[in-house]
User: Fold these one by one.
Assistant:
Number 1:
Amino acid sequence: MITRHGTYNLFNLSIPQSDEEKERYARLVGTIRSLDVHSLAVQEVLGHTPEDAGRLLQQLADDTGLSCMTAPNPASGAPAMPAIAASQHGYPDKNGVSRGNYHVGILRNPEVQPVPGGWRAYNGAPDFWHALATLVLDFGGTQLKIGSFQGDPFRPDWRYNEARRVTSAFLGQEGLLGMDANCVSADLSPSTGEYYDSDPYTEQDHDMLEYQILWREDPSQPPVADRRAADLMLRQGLLDTAALMDGPWEATCGHWIDDSGTPDVWGLRRIDVLRATRRLATKVRAHRFVRTADSLAAADHIPALVEVETGGLPEEAAP
């Protein structure tokens, strides 16, 4: 059967307080419901503690008809818990008030069962600026490791080393990683042999640029996107499913205009990526982006989806 999996950066999501936040939250919920997924990797779930973020993830799961719970670990005795991995880096809101730390999490169709002992949270420092969450799910006898990750936004060298740690969690397995990579892909288009993502930075010139490009001894030289983290993931067997399917390119971010009327400094680019391990790549059947009025209004990123051929599931669990 075909199962559907996604990745979605929720844009500094915290417990909604104002009418504006509640309206945006409702758009997020509606967008997630429309995805009809078996699993969804989410990023930027805010909370001052992992427990706070877990409660927010549980609320989101309840409101979208999904589940976020892991299975108990029979080896360690750890109970089931929300599938949230913690970051150490907070976010000041527009009034300068801390809205807690960034976290990543995993949502799933309630009919898809988590495997006991198949949950791991790679929590922030020292490995990551944000975090990595992995959860093994059982699709009727076929087990897939699902991951959620957000790359370092400010340090290209750290982002490269984070990629090494991420790939170590998926070596030799059937797995799928959903992420805000915070860099453009290095995978090639099968039809052209060129990068699936063209370089979005060649004509840019602003103070944030150095976080996304290769070091230039001569700053007057044209900027070049730093793809090292993506290239390492590719070499280590995590394949970009959008490039693999070679469908039409779409930006996943760059559409957002902030409260002061300022557009995204990076412009249109694709940094929201689903990567399948080599063992799973032959079972990928489709990839698409979800660009709707609600998804564009709900967050500064849009969701990406991939369809994968897996084992059987109860008929009522299939989207």
Note: The chain is about 20% helix and 30% strand.
Number 2:
Amino acid sequence: MTVDAQEEFVAWLRAKGYSEGYVRRVLAVGKAALNRAWKRQEVTEVPWIELPPIGEPYPHTASDDQLAAFLNAIPEDSHLWAYCMIRLNTGCRDDAARDLQPFQIDWAANLIRLNPEGRQQTKKYRPVVPLTATLRRELEALDAAYYVNWHGRHIGSIKKAWAKVRRNAKLPEWFAPKVFRHTVATELRRRGVPHWEVSGQIGHKRAGTSEIYAKFDPDYLGAARTALDAWMADLSRKVPRMRGQSGVSHLRKVVGGTRIELVTPTMSR
């Protein structure tokens, strides 16, 4: 584990085409393992591991047309549909979507606990987020131990299924699963959601002691919830399978006002 050996390893990873972020994560895992062994007195000393600089953030976001093309290319019986609906309506990471189970849904409070009870939080924080009207309708129709499943079994990876759908939708290679999270954050800001709500929605802001009970406020992340449902309503115009799933059918002007009011299914009857 000399400096020369580390540099050769880093060069080998880069030559294989891995991103700077991935190279850094690989070395960080090794560094953490060595430090743990030293802490537990399994070794008497550990080498210094030089981590590469933090890479640039993922630069891509998807347009509504690209999202619609991908969603419309998903086969009727594919587990990717539930996966995409969860990610687009929560802004969560890949593993949180694949791991989501019915007991994590608080139907009465309209909340999703992305971090199940008993699981220790990590640096990739899983927050409690609002259950949008769109996602509620999707999940209510599913009956399985895991919402994202293949014949009832937990999905370990969606990479192969994703790649096939992406090719069928004629989308670029950068259209990877992580584009959803970046697109959700960008769309929320574009729709005027305050930055602190966006941070809370995607898990960049950890709940402090004074915020433990905030999630039970009826307006908890209310702007984010409203914006997500409105966005899903816009997407549904291009994705037939989504029609009727959004809690918002369209927008109309308020008589005598300058605002716009979201029309609920009840109001539109």
Note: Residues 20-39 form the longest helix (20 residues).
Number 3:
Amino acid sequence: MALTLTYHGDFSRVRIEATGLPGADPSWGDAARIWPTWDALAADNPTWGDLADRFTNGAVLRSTDTGRTWQSVRGADRIALAGGVRCNDFEFTPGVENRYRIVDELGRPLAGAAITPELDAVWLKCPVLPFLNLPVDVLTWGTVTRAARAGVFEVVGRAEPVVVTAPRSSREWTLTLVTDDLRRDPAADAEAQADRIEAALAPGEVMLLHVPAGWPVPGGYVHIGDAVRDLQDGHVQGPRIFELPCRTAAAPAPELPGAQFTWAGAARAWTTWAALAADNGTWADVADRFGVPEDLEPGR
């Protein structure tokens, strides 16, 4: 049995692979703990088949606080254990030890390992469409504000108003991204780079600004408002810039999986079933591939 963790820089991901997982059949003690009465057993498992199915699946968990708390890796909160496990974690915490654990449906650990992934650039990531992930160059960022959320009521006959308070809103700032400079690097394709950034922003999803440990750039999960794309200093040979108004937001719901590959991508890659079968031994091989931004454009 082995759990292997590796960092891959193509889409900035921790690759999680496990083989030879031990059998997940529960002990009688486990069954007694989960279903202390026959009625509880019957309510949760109408047939013996339902009971057996509970122990063919598990989850991949991550901890960044030395194992005190654990959370499911996106898309791996219910994953088949038979034949091993293959998945990716795009939302790891850089610069600290990330512990991973594979558990069965009873929460019992089957395998574990740790890795300390490092980033050398800021990444703009789409958690629910990770094939849009790309590294970006941050030119600057604006003042970080937290707007007040309070009602101020003037009362006749009083000098001081009555104030009804509420917690301030989340952090807001404007992030400025820049592409390569054509004047310094004639081989750079600033327009294509700008198109790639725009493609990542097009779905309008909550994004993750993944910032290397110790960098001062504000990051985290953000909602990006009206994005502005322009030429720097109006010069066509200069870099393209993006002004992105960001506001810290809640992460996408953990039950939303990250779609690495779409049906449109499959139709683009394999025009016949024979071609599909020749390149992929199982459906898991298809799901493990990565799409391209064009897969999201209707009619392509």
Note: The first strand starts at residue 2 and ends at 8.
